[in-house]
Automatic annotation (TrEMBL):
Keyword tags: Membrane, Transmembrane, Transmembrane helix
Entries under SMART domains matching the protein: AIRC (SM01001)
Gene Ontology molecular-function annotations: hydrolase activity
InterPro entries: P2CMN_synthase_LarB (IPR039476), PurE_dom (IPR000031)
Ranges annotated as spanning the membrane: 172-191
Start and end residues of each PurE domain: 117-249
Protein name per UniProt: PurE domain-containing protein
Entry keyword annotation includes Transmembrane: yes
Pfam families, sorted: AIRC
Gene Ontology process terms (BP): 'de novo' IMP biosynthetic process
Organism domain of life: Bacteria
Gene3D superfamilies listed in its UniProt record: 3.40.50.1970
Amino acid sequence: MEKLREILGKVHRGELAIDDALQLLRDLPYEDLGFAKIDHHRALRRGVPEVIFCQGKTPEQVARITRQMLEKGVNIMGTRADTRVFEEVKKIAPDAEYHRDARIFAIKRATVARNKGIIAVVSAGTSDIPVAEEAAVTAELLGNKVERLYDVGVAGIHRLFMNMEVLKRAQVIIVVAGMEGALASVVAGLVDKPVIAVPTSVGYGASFSGLSALLTMLNSCAGGLTVVNIDNGFGAGFAAHQINKLGGQEDGCALS
């Protein structure tokens, strides 16, 4: 929205010719690279620029998309990015950051509003941390304060009860669990705030790569529990951000 306002303002003040403005506006809806069509208008519609899903793309493709997005001056986030992808991105953006556990790279170019509320990210086990970190880092990059509470699954439920203050402080809670996925229902039954459940593919054979946890969460008797796809930490972090921002923003902005 700011980019569009800037272009129109320059035309209004006579600082930019109409033909030049049309050339700039041509790429605003989307930019066709042949193998990808970059949605430059997504930030106007959703408040967040397009996020690059790196899995299945070559490092060179990710770098090309990143290069074109950098020209727009937006923040860039790439999910499911391995080290080969990150090394290719670093060639065009030396200041890029890599969150190894989350498999996310980030390039900060624009300020973002800071949401007031806290998002708590809870994992049942240590093995669930990569998915939990994907959720946590996503939420942080979008402008949220995040508190982490890891390895508090139902096999040792006292660990959760001894950290209830974390849940009480939060505006939104993300619960990440594999195996049978029971932790999400337990947490949802203890709090009066939105809980987003993320089933993970962690578990033995009959967990069916996360299907067991997914079905447990979908069949929860705790009202108001929302469930995202297996291992979809990004989806949970984004949804938590959308909820949390309804509580208002702090004064001032910061790089995400």
